[in-house]
Amino acid sequence: MKITCSKNDLVKGVNIVNKAIPSKTTMTILQCILITAYNGVITLTSNDTELGIDTIIPGNIEEEGVVAIDAKLISDIVRKLPDNTVRMETDENFMTKLTCENSKFNLVGRSGDDFPYPDDIEKNDYITISQYTLKEVIRQTIFSTADNENNKIMTGELFEIKGDTMKIVSLDGHRISIRNIELRQSYPDRKVIVPGKTLSEIEKILSGEIERTVDIFFTDNNAVFEFDNTIVTTRLIEGEYFDIDRMMSDEYETKMVIEKKDLMDSIERAILLVKENDKKPVIFSISQDLLEIKINSTIGSLNEDISIEKEGFDLMIGFNPKFILDALRVIEDEKISMYFMNSKAPCFIKDDGGRYIYLVLPVNFATVS
Amino acid sequence: MKITCSKNDLVKGVNIVNKAIPSKTTMTILQCILITAYNGVITLTSNDTELGIDTIIPGNIEEEGVVAIDAKLISDIVRKLPDNTVRMETDENFMTKLTCENSKFNLVGRSGDDFPYPDDIEKNDYITISQYTLKEVIRQTIFSTADNENNKIMTGELFEIKGDTMKIVSLDGHRISIRNIELRQSYPDRKVIVPGKTLSEIEKILSGEIERTVDIFFTDNNAVFEFDNTIVTTRLIEGEYFDIDRMMSDEYETKMVIEKKDLMDSIERAILLVKENDKKPVIFSISQDLLEIKINSTIGSLNEDISIEKEGFDLMIGFNPKFILDALRVIEDEKISMYFMNSKAPCFIKDDGGRYIYLVLPVNFATVS
Mean pLDDT across the stretch B116-129? Predict the structure, then answer.
């Protein structure tokens, strides 16, 4: 293989495929970036067996070929090169000469014969959305996937397409995040569960520009995200997602409208009194025009009053402060509405337009004053 | 104790005294900030028994008193308060009510009776230098102190005052850093060894402004740095510092003048091929007008040519690339001069004005090509 490309294109490409380099693996080939140069196209590829990324970089091919090089090594090196043309040349033993201005590196490469290429996907139906929308919607839901692999389905997010809307759902047993986005056209109905871990990586790669789009293909086992010069392939999680609709309700006994920033600042202070593993709840006392926030822990206590608009009954209810905070942090509205039934039933934070619903289960606070 | 002060002054003060809060200690009182309010002055104090910091913050005292509060807790809280007046009120059990706008914290405090106050220092002779100069000179030497406590003296820096100059020296057995600064006047001769760890913390607190000064007092056991509203007291390291002058030499067989950035960039690339614990040297081949840089490791090799001005013999010499890089990173000159005797003797990087000398010992490279 003999190729030339610009340092900046190489850095950009390497940064993208790095997202699918596993931090720990016993298969050292997975810690390599595969560089292929065929048919006039230079492609960088990485694959952690769950997530695979291909990205095309501009450049010239003098001799076709392929080489796999340790991802950390090549990343560190290309970042430190002068801003100029980079030349890579591989010999029959995959020793790779990398030159740029006066720097001449000789790097140990590998054939890449054992590199697991991402599955080839039959690309039929797909949906198109803006990169901005996808990036946002992942950020706004990803925090309530479960880390823990005990329930595999909870580690993923539901993508449900119905006509011209897509619903994205995540839940971890304590809370549910739901986002509805309008699509530009109608598509066939579809329901898949995408691993949360791969969505986090996709979110980092997406440019977030409104004008740029991403095409999403689904097959039985995979989802493919195509955008710019990059193709991200991820395995899907098998199984049936939870029946979310059954957990929803439009009824309430108490409704509170509050400035999001006031509530967020207050809970951020309350959380400072909660030491790790100490499950102290934050208590909301909702009365006419006033929310009183209270927390009590071994290291101290906090009381704060925030003015609100209230409808319905007074209520006292306790929450894990982190769960409320996580939802508030991703809601774009300045004023939010919270709906309650009683101190044992879930609280809903939702807008009138049906763009988002955040459900948070309350916690028992009988033992605290 | 009853005091009021602005949130911002409190944050600033807490950030300063935090530098002497030990990350690990069995004495929990050391993890507290002591707040004292006497004679119209509010002082925050911390002390890790080697380093003590007092800083005065503006505010009103309604009732004199003292309380010790967990440093992490109070730091986290004050940062999250609204930008307004903070009121602190302590009861007879040292429970501390901290209020700011609608937030009312109740925090567990301590009497502070067991708090180790910094030694009271008899302040006689002192020197005055600009904060900028002190901050710079610490940054430019601190990296070559030894981490390892086997040789206590190497963990400190020599401050040697002779007439109107101060020499700051650090060494770790492989290299020596020397900085000479001109003082505004002559002072009595003095030689002390200040712990490197406390100098790092002082460097962080110093504002770095040229117009602001710092007074440095020395006693037999302590050094005291007074600046702005802050007093930093540090224990000195006992013993006689190494005889540096005996290690210096103005003779050389080879002199090389080189653009610092070229050399730095090149060594930064070379270092990428050195894995941790792998002591591969970078080889300098100095010939007429050209420095060739080479490194060879298990993962690859690098060759680079840099144009230089040379005086004297050609030379091949090997270095730990990190040691050369550390020195280059803190030298302010764009063009530097390096002086060599032979491949076994130390290399000197120094300027003509005598502001700095960096000595680096070479390493054996017989085993590499």
Answer: 79
